[in-house]
Amino acid sequence: MYGNDFNVPDEVAGAGLGAGAPGGPSHLLDEVAAAERALREAGAARVADPGVAADGDELLRYFDAVIEADQKIEPRDWMPDAYRQGLIRQIAQHAHSEIIGMQPEGNWISRAPSLKRKAILLAKVQDEAGHGLYLYAAAETLGVSRDALVELLLAGRQKYSSIFNYPTLTWADVGAIGWLVDGAAIVNQVPLCRCSYGPYARAMIRICKEESFHQRQGYEILHTLAHGTPGQKAMAQDAVNRWWYPSLAMFGPPDADSTHSQQSMTWKIKRFSNDELRQRFVDMCVQQASVLGLDIPDPDLRWNEQRQAHDYTQPDYTELMRVIKGDGPCNRQRAAHRHAAHADGAWVREAAAAYAAKRNAPTTKAAA
Ligand code: BYC
Predict the structure, then answer these.
(1) CB 329 within 8 Å of CB 273
(2) What is the H or E stretch that residue 303 is in?
(3) Under 8 Å between Cβ of 112 and 171
(4) Tens digit of pLDDT for each residue in 143-152?
(5) Strand partners, 166
(6) Which residues surround ligand 1 with Cβ inside 6 Å?
(7) Whole-number Å distance between alpha carbons of 28 and 33
(8) Degrees (nearest 5) of the Cα angle 209, 243, 95?
(9) What is the C-alpha separation between 20 and 210, in angstroms, rounded?
(10) Residues 88-132 pLDDT 10s
């Protein structure tokens, strides 16, 4: 079991965070493990290569056959330019999200309520930096440099997830981010472990294993607060009230307005639509919230027997678009902080480059 630093009460296990419970991280980790096995098997069984002399049509047929057979496209393989550019777009946005995503929680490292909480949060935020690095590395296999992607982020020409443009006002927000934001991230990212592009799929397997720990730490913070004083419980509820709809919006616009979903699903980059994943997330959270003793702030949330899923209120997609375009509560603050951190880190990049150059320089033999 990943990231379990406290004894999971029986009712929590039953609510989806315990081993194998449907929709919970352990269950999702089973999906990650299955994706990892499938990835190895796909590597061992390649569709017959058309050879170096193949022309455009043959190459496209080969590409389509690899996707059809659920095998992986690797950096050495020919791929349509739109597939390459689409992947660069998504992987870069994903990497930027991990890096910008360090800010809201980083805000609480120096104010965590105990040394243990501080150590856990520090490790978690550090993990997010690691995820960013795996993803930039995956993007680099498509022929774009990490420096170029970082420049595009700094210039505001590439996006990052809308969710990180909301403020963390109290310690309970750290719990709500772990439970809801990392929970949404897991639901969205587990299917990406089966993405048709090998380097992205491999990065996602490692990321999902770590995200499962992140969700648990958030859930445990909220569980503790919700079972503490009335003031602590109110603080936890307030955080859930503020993070619920932005978390639903993380899955993107509704399917009818999603520009990339159809092509992305044909190419098996995305495996499920935005709305399908959003529904899966809602269904997962309902039972977990009841164990926490916290309410999901949606008066219209109810089980629909016919659909075998919960009906729920959609997030405000006009707000999502506004936040994506740069007008969320914290967009300017996040961009300013990233610019400052990038400038502050210039000497580290220079020192690392100088050290690498020195190590790579041909050694000159000392004169006899
Ligand atoms: N925020 O056609 P659509 C984390 C954009 S990191 C901003 O449906 P697609 C974590 C979309 O990019 C979580 N932009 O797009 C880190 C597109 O714009 P462009 C990040 C959004 O790609 C630290 C346009 O709207 N996760 O969990 O098919 C600490 C139309 O959308 C958003 C990932 O990046 C949004 N919420 O589907 C804690 C996962 N939604 O590019 C936690 C990988 C949509 O045409 N990415 N847009 O200018 C994906 O799965 C997909 O890219 C999305 C969107 C589901 C996000």
Answers:
(1) no
(2) strand 302-304
(3) yes
(4) 999 999 999 9
(5) none
(6) 89-90, 93-94, 97-98, 101, 128, 159, 161-162, 181-182, 185, 188-189, 249-253, 258-261, 264, 270, 274, 324
(7) 9
(8) 45
(9) 17
(10) 999 999 999 999 999 999 999 999 999 999 999 999 999 999 999
